[in-house]
Specification:
Mean pLDDT: 94
Shape: globular
Bound molecules: zinc ion
Number of strands: 4
Order of helices and strands: EEEEHH
Structural class: alpha+beta
Number of domains: 1
Radius of gyration: 15 Å
Number of helices: 2
Low-confidence stretches: none
Helix content: 25-40%
Length: about 110
């Protein structure tokens, strides 16, 4: 069991073989988070029993962290923390800024 801080709140990271090993009702999800209970689940395998690559698992973790960041920033009442399109757009923007070196233009 691993812990990370999201906006100063400790979250538990679980890495079960399958999502359904932790939560039956989330069977079929690639990963999931429960912001109210400070829990993120990133499985080792997909629903077909194939092992997930570390790169894909990091993408899943980033996606779930964004859900939690929106929630912990106080936007839960807006519905944004559960808006999958918004979360994926933020993940894309974050990846773009991180991987393209655009911030290096100031150095
Ligand atoms: Zn999501």
């Amino acid at each position: 069991m691993k812990k990370i801080l999201i906006v100063h709140k400790p979250y538990t990271i679980l890495e079960p073989e399958y999502v359904k090993d932790v939560c039956d009702s989330m069977d079929g999800a690639a990963a999931y988070c429960d912001c109210a209970n400070k829990l993120i689940v990133v499985p080792l395998k997909n629903n077909e029993g194939e092992e997930l690559t570390n790169g894909y698992r990091l993408e899943l973790l980033e996606h779930e962290i964004i859900h939690c960041l929106i929630y912990e920033a106080g936007y839960d009442g807006t519905g944004w923390s559960s808006d999958e399109k918004l979360v994926e757009m933020i993940r894309f923007i974050s990846e773009y800024i991180r991987t393209t070196g655009v911030l290096g233009c100031l150095s």
